[in-house]
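wait is this the right file?? whatever heres the structure
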């Protein structure tokens, strides 16, 4: 049995074209002092890369001003993570804007979350 290998073009390799999107770096989100930050996810996003300098609560929904629930929302430690978004994740309506909400678990000054969409 033979397996054909696919070679990506230079533009596909550098733009994460294998996932059907482009590389879009957002402005850093300030989460200093346990400030909650909101990020509007582009409708064409397939993958979010998140680089957080601090342990954070994370919530994704379709409301821009949802407050983080520290008793229920997901916690991720400082580091780099990827989250994939299958098409139709917006409850069947692909035009619904999704939002990523983040907030520090422990209040520390001068911390940011960096996000890249693809």
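ok assuming it is, sequence goes like this
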């Amino acid at each position: 049995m033979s397996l054909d290998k696919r070679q990506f073009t230079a533009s596909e390799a550098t733009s994460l074209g294998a996932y059907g999107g482009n590389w879009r770096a957002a402005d850093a989100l300030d989460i200093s002092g346990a400030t909650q930050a909101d990020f509007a996810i582009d409708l064409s996003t397939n993958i979010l890369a998140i680089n957080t300098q601090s342990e954070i609560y994370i919530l994704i929904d379709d409301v821009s001003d949802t407050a983080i629930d520290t008793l229920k929302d997901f916690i991720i430690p400082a580091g780099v993570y990827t989250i994939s978004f299958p098409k139709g994740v917006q409850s069947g309506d692909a035009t619904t804007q999704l939002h990523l909400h983040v907030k520090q678990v422990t209040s520390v000054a001068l911390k940011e979350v960096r996000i890249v969409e693809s």
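The beta strands are 24-25, 29-30, 37-41, 47-52, 56-61, 74-76, 79-84, 98-104, 112-117. so i think its the right one actually
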